[in-house]
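User: Here's a chain of 169 residues. Predict its fold as tokens.
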Amino acid sequence: MRLCLVSAPTATDFEDPGDAQNRAVRQPAETPPLGLLALAAVLDDDGIRPTIVNLNFCYYDFLARGRSGVDEFAPWAADVILSQKADVYGFSSISSSYPTTIRIAERVKRSQPECVILFGGPQASVVDLQTLAAFPFVDFVLRGEADETLPRFLAELSNGGHSSSVPGL
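Assistant: Prediction complete.
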């Protein structure tokens, strides 16, 4: 099973390219997503080697190409994510960029309907049931820390098991 982990796009809060390129904004936005990297290390111990798409890096690449606007970024980011050719796309979430994450995930699912869209992170954990009800393209929300539950979920998924046995899912 191929897994792609996708970071929350915090830099997209700054739609104005000048604001986004400001050193005070860019420096923290370009920090590697440590939570996803730690999760990838846990998965690697289980024999799963996920790819990671840092949406902040994607956003700066998008701006460098003379593009702008979150509405234009969503399809562009979806294409970058889809290039990973994964079976499962795990999206990290935070409150400020949740609408952008939703738009990107919808485009991924529309282009690859057989994939699994999984949301995690603080925002998805808080609005889990609401997200699943409002956005049918989101297949699962995994609440809380995923270092133990994500490997279990992936094992259940690949073995055709019953995912309801996974805590926080």
